[in-house]
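CATEGORY: protein folding

GOAL: derive structure tokens
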Amino acid sequence: MRTTSDLPKPDENEVLSAERRAFLGRSALAAGAAAVGSYLSLSPQPAEAAVIPGPATDGNLAIQRANKAYDIRRDAASYQKSLPLPQHPDNGDEALYLNKIGSFTKALPHDDLGEVDLGAFDQLRTALITGNDADFESIPLGGSRKLANPQATYAFSLEGADSHALSMPPAPTFASEDEAAEIVEVYWHALLRDVPFEHYGTHSDAAAAIEDMNTFSYFRNKYDGGVTVENLFRGETLGDLAGPFVSQLLLKPIPFGATWVEQRYTVGEAGADYMTTYDDWLQVQRGNIPRSSVLDSTPRYIKDARGLGSYVHSDFTYQAYLSAAQIIIGGLGISNPWHPNLPYWNSATQGRFVTLGAADLLTLIAKAAHEALKAAWFEKWQVHLRLRPEAFGGRIHNNLDGTTSYDIDSSIDSVTVFAETFSRYGTYLLPMAYPEGSPTHPAYPAGHATVAGACVTLLKAFFDTGLEIPNPVVPNAKGTRLGPWAGGEFLTIGGELNKLAANISLGRDMAGVHWRSDGIEGLFLGEQVAIRILKDIKRIYNEEFDGFTFPGFGDQIIHV
């Protein structure tokens, strides 16, 4: 299992020079006086305006407070700067393939094989190296879609780690057996898109998927005994294999202010798959959207891969985790779900709120989501430029119909999924859940997964992960109602949070837009993001406590 080691402690003895402190004190006093008049004034107050001395009225105390605030920011920045700078290895595909068949090129001009115009690719690479706005504006596009925010790779962070200060392993290479294993899973996701999760045990396509996936050591090594009905398409973290496929936090109603929100969602219509003709596929690679979505008129609970893929098509960045927090705080009937190591657990006079309570956590969730996206965008654009599964599906199609001989691992010859795809659609292209296919940014890591990793880590740091989820539910095969889940397993907050992260990550795979490793490694990158944020915010509290302790996505306990 992946592990995350604890981070080194900051140098608590680092101090400003006396001269620098004096300068800062004078600057803070002058700036404060200019901004709020008598805020830092030491002159007597008029008799009719008697004021009780305090930090806002006593000049010396105000200066001390300003200096302390500066010290906290300085020490946090110094700590982040003191950590070793990581390496950023890529998988070598960009350098290996001069025609860039192993790199992300979507929305640029492409020829009839779906290979990128090399001049356009070079301009993209130039812009990514220089960071100049004019260079980005000079990138040729192949259709109507724009590139998805490549300049975000240069954005800095003022809390937690800078995006360039984190790292992740390289993605599987284009020609590797691991890449072949992952694309086989993505194809089976597509072919099983409308099969309810609860029917995997009896469905012939699920049995065929299990047989195909077990031909690869990649999957046999992930689970004891290989892929089975019980773990098919599930995540790899603690809790993923317990209970129903879908997390309780994506099923139970959400308390939302003065109302409740049932988690029934608009989903794609059964059988509505896209990019199964070569012309549509090519148009999408060039940056066009040849078709429109076809939606089911009945809102449904998430009960199959199409429903999960639909959820992660329309969600906002931290929706699932904002909802999860609300469910845990007020929707489960648990009177005190907060982590017992945090303050206020047994306070006789105080309750948590602005700090270490709901207001704090909900704000941090949004913050962590944004910082996670910065980290993901750096890795996507500056380091890996991994192609999307849909592009690899085009390479497979062109190989299997004899047009090309790309360097794809021969293990795909021993599986049945591509012949099954051809029998249904008349091509070997990957059937997509969205008419536009993937977003116009590279695959690795998945943005959804990195956000999930960061936000779920924060939720595990604030809540008691060992508490039982009461009265678990499961949707019926049509997704029209919930019923009690009678499986008998003990479902915990921590396990269902891990499952939530995996559901969101793998839901993007089920739509065809990501690879498994985009999601799994994205979770660990997001976990790093959250740990570094927690390291910073631990400094800001007046409450005395030992820090945050929570289970990581591996088999370790993390203490911050």
